[in-house]
């Protein structure tokens, strides 16, 4: 693999970086972001950064040569991509909107051969280019996003996509289209039964199921019928999402929600409607499905504390092979990004708490594994800090997961930064975490908390966070702080809190609810006025968004005021740092401006960092360098580590 490694300029190195990894290295984007192998196994497609843009590089495997490149013009770059046949890849086109730093998808699909030829925009608003003097059918522009639901391996020139219309209120249902990957000509196959959903196939080109939500944000599952779609009313299956098919037994796999319990994997025989339980875990939901090379579900990824796997099918020996790979890469997670159509080769990604991701070419037949590239070669795992997974039991018997990242060579009485995650319906994982590495590299213990309302721990845990944004969720976070102090990890006199989005809300709400617990707080793209969520931002633009807010927060003005930082600033008597992007649509800049203005009037001016061209979270390396340089200085001043970097620019 030597020539491949040299081209990508990424190879494993034993170079030591010293006792502290430079901040400029930690804020850098992953250079290699995905690698996938072609169905025939002759080529690979590598998504990587080139001059700050995501491009797609094609390489033959024998010999190892570059065969083509997809480098889109202007502000457009490559998003998710898929091999549609042995020679052609279909990629999403991402672009930067206006002055926004971060690229976003506007629904366009680009198709190109591995030799870099016959590139064409086959779907989206850019697809309707003019073609004069010909009768050949041409692509037409479509204002919608497309999700590839079946690459149609037996139809070498077509794919099936499920669309989401490009409408501001997001209430219009999409459709299923068959698209020619060379001409872009499309044909409608079926409409979708609901908005905010997608269709699924049997992986042989036949529509099988569809999902969606009604205007009250209630999830719905549909089965394909001759004249359209039939809604599944069975209470057990109605909340299920399709995850695969076993063609040998004609059974579809679903992950279903169970009231007051964790998720369960089941399989359905559509002819008999017989539903069979396959697997569930007492603590955790199903974090992902493990597929054999022939795309049959054979196992599940789980994340109770540390990640693990469970196999319910040996997959003709592939499960045993997977276990062998896990043993070879002990202490890390592994996943296959893609397989050849005959199942003999695959691309393996290995990642963990100190490894953003390394890629390998695996020959399943010979059991040979060749290193391809590291996503972030400049980061040496030996110099990064490990993450400890743990938990405690709350007073009302909830199991609250925690992740602790310690600075090097120290585990007692440390200055600690608490980082509550966003959402609130998301979760933290045992994996490489940029924020945790930045802070721990600079001497801070980092505490992350999967408070109630977090995803991944079952229906009962999820719903326990509803209408508790400013209540029991904040108690879970505060209890986690006390837990870390009682363990002897944290110095009770040197604790600060920093979070983004809902985490930014919590960064201010927790000191309001628990005065004296923190020495400082930093809110990043946070929500500070709950009533404003009904008036500004992208959530309130659609009925489903309003239904979400009513379920999560209610519309009672007294409740909203009682649980909003903006109406409780009298209790904020610690140093504050407010960070926001001026183009944020999820938590508009008015949240930060209103809070800063009120604090100023009360004689408690806060430090602030408002960046013009960023949205809901900073994207550019330069802006992140500035953010964390200032954040480290803020923390250093108030809980005193004395290891703030002064680097003015990002390493090139």
UniProtKB/TrEMBL annotation:
Region forming the signal peptide: 1-18
Gene3D superfamilies in the cross-refs: alpha/beta hydrolase
Give the top-level enzyme category. hydrolase
Q: Tell me the ranges covered by the Peptidase S9 prolyl oligopeptidase catalytic domain, including all copies.
A: 430-640
Molecular function (GO) terms listed? Answer: hydrolase activity
What keywords are assigned to this protein?
Hydrolase, Signal
Its protein name is: Alpha/beta hydrolase family protein
């Amino acid at each position: 693999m030597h020539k491949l490694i040299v081209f990508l300029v990424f190879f494993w190195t034993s170079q030591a970086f010293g006792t502290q990894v430079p901040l400029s290295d930690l804020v850098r984007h992953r250079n290699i972001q995905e690698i996938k192998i072609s169905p025939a196994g002759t080529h690979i497609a590598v998504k990587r950064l080139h001059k700050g843009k995501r491009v797609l590089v094609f390489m033959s495997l024998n010999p190892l040569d570059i065969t083509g490149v997809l480098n889109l013009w202007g502000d457009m770059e490559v998003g998710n991509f898929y091999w549609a046949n042995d020679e052609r890849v279909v990629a999403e086109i991402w672009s930067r909107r206006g002055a926004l730093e971060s690229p976003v998808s506007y629904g366009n699909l680009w198709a190109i051969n591995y030799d870099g030829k016959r590139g064409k925009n086959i779907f989206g608003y850019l697809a309707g280019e003019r073609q004069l003097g010909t009768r050949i059918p041409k692509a037409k522009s479509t204002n919608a996003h497309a999700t590839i639901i079946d690459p149609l391996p037996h139809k070498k020139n077509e794919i099936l996509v499920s669309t989401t219309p490009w409408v501001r209120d997001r209430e219009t249902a999409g459709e299923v289209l068959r698209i020619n990957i060379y001409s872009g000509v499309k044909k409608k196959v079926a409409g979708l039964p609901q908005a905010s959903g997608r269709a699924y196939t049997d992986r042989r080109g036949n529509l099988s199921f569809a999902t969606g939500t009604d205007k009250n944000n209630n999830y719905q599952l549909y089965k394909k019928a001759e004249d359209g779609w039939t809604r599944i009313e069975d209470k057990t299956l109605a909340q299920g999402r399709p995850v695969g098919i076993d063609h040998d037994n004609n059974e579809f796999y679903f992950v279903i929600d169970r009231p007051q319990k964790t998720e369960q994997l089941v399989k359905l025989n559509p002819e008999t409607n017989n539903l069979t339980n396959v697997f569930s875990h007492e603590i955790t939901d199903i974090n992902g499905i493990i597929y054999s090379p022939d795309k049959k579900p054979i196992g599940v990824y789980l994340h109770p504390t540390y990640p693990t796997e469970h196999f319910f099918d040996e997959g003709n020996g592939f499960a045993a092979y997977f276990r062998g790979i896990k043993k070879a890469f002990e202490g890390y997670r592994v996943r296959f990004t893609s397989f050849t159509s005959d199942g003999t080769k695959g691309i393996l990604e290995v990642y963990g708490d100190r490894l953003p991701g390394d890629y390998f070419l695996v020959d399943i037949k010979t059991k040979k594994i060749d290193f391809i590239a590291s996503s972030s070669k400049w980061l040496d795992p030996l110099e990064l800090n490990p993450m400890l997974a743990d938990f405690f039991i709350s007073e009302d018997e909830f199991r609250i997961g925690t992740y602790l990242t310690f600075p090097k060579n120290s585990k007692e009485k440390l200055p600690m930064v608490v980082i509550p995650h966003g959402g609130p319906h998301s979760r933290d994982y045992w994996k490489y975490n940029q924020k945790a590495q930045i802070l721990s590299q600079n001497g801070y213990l980092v505490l992350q908390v999967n408070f109630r309302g977090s995803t991944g721990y079952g229906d009962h845990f999820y719903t326990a966070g509803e209408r508790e944004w400013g209540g029991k969720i904040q108690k879970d976070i505060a209890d986690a702080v006390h837990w870390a102090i009682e363990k002897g990890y944290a110095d009770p006199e040197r604790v600060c809190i920093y979070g983004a989005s809902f985490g930014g809300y919590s960064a201010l709400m927790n000191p309001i609810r628990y005065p004296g617990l923190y020495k400082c707080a930093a809110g990043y793209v946070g929500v500070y006025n709950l009533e404003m969520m009904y008036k500004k931002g992208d959530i309130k633009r659609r009925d489903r968004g309003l239904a979400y807010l009513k379920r999560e927060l209610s519309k009672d003005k007294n409740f909203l005021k009682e649980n909003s930082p903006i109406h409780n600033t009298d209790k904020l008597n610690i140093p504050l740092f407010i960070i926001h992007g001026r183009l944020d649509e999820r938590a508009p800049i008015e949240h930060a401006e209103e809070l800063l203005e009120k604090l100023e009037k009360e004689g408690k001016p806060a430090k602030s960092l408002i960046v013009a061209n960023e949205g809901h979270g900073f994207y550019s390396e330069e802006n992140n360098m500035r953010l964390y340089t200032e954040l480290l200085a803020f923390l250093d001043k108030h809980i005193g580590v004395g290891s703030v970097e002064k680097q003015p620019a990002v390493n090139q």
